[in-house]
């Protein structure tokens, strides 16, 4: 296979030598079961006929009006859903929600159907996979194929895409054959699915992901919306018109930058029918496959400059005219190029901007787990996994307990960003300077500089009460004269030990696996603290395979003795669920019951307790165990069902 990566080569394949580079037999064989003879998989006459029909549709005012009305209405419904999420201080899987939105809008625009996706408690079956999509669209199309058999009775004609499509092909010479061919109709529907539903949801998901990761971009977007569409900000309207969103130049630049880095279709394979020579002299033998990597080329420095990997919307705006710069369709190939260029490019762009402007005018969208967000490599470029992984436990607890019961035991507090002054109450200025200089608000810092800053803190024997990355910054801890930190984790709590190694006020106990070569290599029972903190650091190394009963007995004996000896004012318990038996990176053989027994023992000590969750590399097991821990703390452990239900918001 030949992989090309220049705009010139893309133009050769997609335009100049278009007839020599069809999809080809290999692509058709691979896509036949899913896309059949639809426009995305077809070549030759079949492709040309569908292209001609579709081109006419996208010129129709009826389709534009239908789309605008449907998008506006479903965007308002999306507002309602997000408003309820905010009112309940909940998080939501944004990609899943946007998929529901695009399915709802797509079904109405394309088929005139109301799916009810945004009102449903979970995804409709066909949203999970294209296999389900084929089955469900076949059921839906039974009604639509019957429509073709009913004579015109004078009733108003439907203006959805499929009705317009059927009206158009009905006038063709092969109308009878096409209208009654179930395979042909199924192919049309499934290809509409690819074009309408997935690409819209994915583009919006990546848009909000990038905006969330670039606060300065979000601030600039809000300023533009406030300045150019004040009626939207002042709640005079909920959704802008197509004419209004065309004023938002920076929004268009952000959307284009998103599509550059995350194109709807990541790659496109072609087949050389005969020997060919590309404009740069590259020879392509007949029968060869040629790959057009849209995703990769969008990140290549020789195409987009040295900052190709950076999210920089300003690259799309002419500094002199303040307008969007014109870029070759063979360089910016988010919507393909040449004769196969997406016919719905203009409508799709307007739809994306309309939804984005509407949501940005009312909501600040924060992705809770950006480090987990990646993509599935498939026909399109979907987000892989949920975009709100950090709140899986809360979602599961709300699924376990009836409405209102959980609020009787828990008060949900919204997190706040720590100020520099608050951080410096626990850390030296040198240490914080390094974090700010190299972190830029993120987690990435230069290891050597950070280690040096920590070393200087230790050399000065500062009695620190926490590390920023371990979440021990907690109001009131600095006033404690005796604090006990107990860490349960398959890996030694080296950060905790280092922070408190010289403190006479803080004692730390770590239960962990220790064996040659196991990360992080610290945690020997001889590491007992130093200076005024001597004998305040206790390591309890365990062997691989420790069970609930063995661990429980040791935990109660060690922690009980420490509390008796130290008489702490408060206890911090860190529960690392990488100690569970099925954890892929663990080595213990504990169950949820074993961990909850330890929590129950600590709660019975009648001390103020700060309980923290940590570790865990099996999503489902971690979520269920954290839920069981919370239930234990609020005295509801015995009321948990034997089989804790899984929840829509998480998956293995």
Ordered list of secondary-structure elements with their pairings:
Blueprint: E1 2-3, H1 7-16, H2 24-35, H3 44-57, H4 61-87, H5 94-111, H6 125-128, H7 130-149, H8 161-169, H9 175-179, H10 182-213, H11 215-228, H12 230-233, H13 242-245, H14 249-261, E2 268-271, E3 276-277, E4 283-284, E5 289-292, H15 294-297, H16 301-304, H17 345-360, E6 374-375, E7 383-384, H18 392-400, H19 420-424, H20 429-439, H21 447-459, E8 483-488, H22 494-500, E9 506-513, E10 537-542, H23 548-566, E11 570-576, H24 592-603, E12 609-614, H25 619-633
Parallel strand pairs: 1-5, 8-9, 8-11, 9-10, 11-12
Antiparallel strand pairs: 2-5, 3-4, 6-7
Description:
46% of the residues lie in helices and 8% in strands. It has 652 residues and is of the alpha/beta class. It folds into 3 domains: 7-268 and 294-387, Cytochrome p450 (Orthogonal Bundle), CATH 1.10.630.10; 394-410 and 480-639, Histone deacetylase domain (Arginase, Chain A), CATH 3.40.800.20; 419-468, no CATH class. Helix 4 (61-87) packs parallel to helix 17. The protein is elongated. Mean pLDDT is 77; it is low at 130-155, 438-476 and 645-652.
